[in-house]
Amino acid sequence: MSRTLYQFHGGVHPEEHKQVSTQLPIAVAPIPAQLIVPTRQHIGHPAKPCVCIGEYVRKGQIIAQADGYISVAIHAPSSGTVTHIGTHPMPHPSGLVDNAIVIATDGKDEWCERQPIDYRNLNASALRNRLRDMGIAGLGGAVFPSFIKLNPGVPQKVQTLLLNGGECEPWITCDDMTMRERAAGIMAGVAIMRFMLRAETVIVGIEDNKPEAIIAMQQAAAQCQFPVEIVVIPTLYPSGGAKQMIKVITGKEVPSGGRSTDVGVATFNVGTAYAIHRAIDHGEPLISRVVTVAGNIQQARNFEVLIGTPMNELVQLGQGHPAKVSGYVMGGPMMGIDLQRIDVPVVKATNCILVKSQTLFPPAPLEMPCIRCTRCADACPADLQPQELYWFARAKNFDKAQKYNLFDCIECGCCSYVCPSHIPLVQYYRYAKSEIAFNLAEHKAADHARERHETRLARIEREKKERAEKLAQKAAAKPATDTSSDDPATTAKKAAIQAAIERAKANQATTQPPTEPS
Amino acid sequence: MIAALFVMAGLAIVLGAALGFAAIKYKVEEDPIVEKIDAILPQTQCGQCGYPGCKPYAEAIASGKADINQCPPGGDEGARKLAELMGVEFKPLNAEFGEPKPKSVAVIDEAICIGCTLCIQACPVDAILGAAKQMHTVIAKECTGCELCIAPCPVDCISMEPIKETVGTWKWKYPIVELKAVS
Question: Which of A236, A247, B9, B34 could serve as A8's disulfide partner, Cβ 3.0–4.6 Å?
Fold first, then answer.
């Protein structure tokens, strides 16, 4: 079966470096002495800790509950004792600290009670809640809570379930190895997702530089109860981007500012499918993931790593460094983030740890002025005008940058890759995006403060009025007794009283005998 | 000649009636420029500008009584936006009205607080919770950092604490490293 493939705009061919980490099968990384499990590992609201210091936790036990709608639970990756709940340095470009739950492991790796369920016995809503409580978030890098994406919508919006096995970023091979070794598990996860989304078609997109993965996935697809199409797409960075892959396979373009579901496609990473299979069919929450460790190390390899494992311990499994280490990157060379320190934990978003050296990753050449060659515009897979965005971001002209669809930028780095002036374009876009987001938040806060202030003023005004009214009422009550003489009702009353007095007097006169002769 | 006069007079009456109707029907209750200025102001309600809140300051700017550079929390950036809106030349912040400070929240030392409610009455956004002779506390999320609660406190138990940067509020930095002139 052959399918017409389309092409997205632009794209680049960076050196792949994928061979080095696919020579050995996925190895299970040893349990570290200490697991640092951050509560903010997904997009949205951080999870809320529900254990206390000193508590013994088993592997797979919930240690932080989902808090708010866009949130998922966090679990203990191994058994041990909670030693600390508080701040710890994070794998974040800022190098700032954030909340984490630290567990001193006991090495027993003792599971809590696991409850495998048959997904066909549950409705989609119950399954979604289960996935939230199993901590499933997208493992492709964005870590968006999967249960939210697994809602077909009313009316049905999703027709196609697209499994993303693109993995276009250089060096990273964790999805490749997952597909090679765990294809059946991925397909089991796909079955669950297909059931939840009521999707008509299931497509798996894989770049043609992963022949072993393609064969493994084709074999697994043949065993499936439902039709699964494995689509081999040409290798071109960034075809693993959701919007780019949708374009290549379906020819549809996600509208500006829109999501995949706007064109009827739900996209998931292959690792997420496997995690969903473990969560539903085995009752195992998301407590580990496959991480590529590569770059300036002796033995590059993929590891099954417990979430919370300190990265320095993981890097040590690479058996030393051939050259002097010049830094660490979480993710790939195109989109990854430079880490300020290496004692930070592996999180759900960690697909790769790259060890840098001066030869493998030479420092960026000096930034030169933009010569307006528009090579970046030719390379941009989002069909933007990077040179214009650069000027606007540099001039802090954020309104204009937004008008040029800055927020459609996927930060893939193609523009900086081809720039002959070596301008760190993506950094400018990230800067502009975060400034805009910050201004928006400030504006919202100001609106909120205005509302509160106005409510307060209105309340003070109302209280004043009420007090004045009360005083007026009191004042009105007093003269009411004086002016009552004019009232016809009171005159009648008075007359009645007068009459009664008269009557009493008359009575007295008649009943009482004259007192004088006694 | 007379026909022309009648036509012109008739036109004048019809158009006048239309304008008069429009003036009543589409009457603008408040000067919209005040709203626009108020939207730029940071809504701290701190009164550093010399007016009792952001709205009165906006009204004063609109009527030409106040200048555009009297709002320290808005800073130069705010003054620039106001200048653009009002179509006047930008002026840097007037230091007479105060210096811009990092965003802060008020914190009550709860051990010292005597529960006098003076700060509650001073807070423009009802961000302080408490009752007479009961300990008070600041709802940090609602506090605009206006510092109006500090002066009325008889026991000086309120202090301002700058808001720390977190992973959630962190921003990417401007990629250009400014070269410092060596004097």
Answer: A247
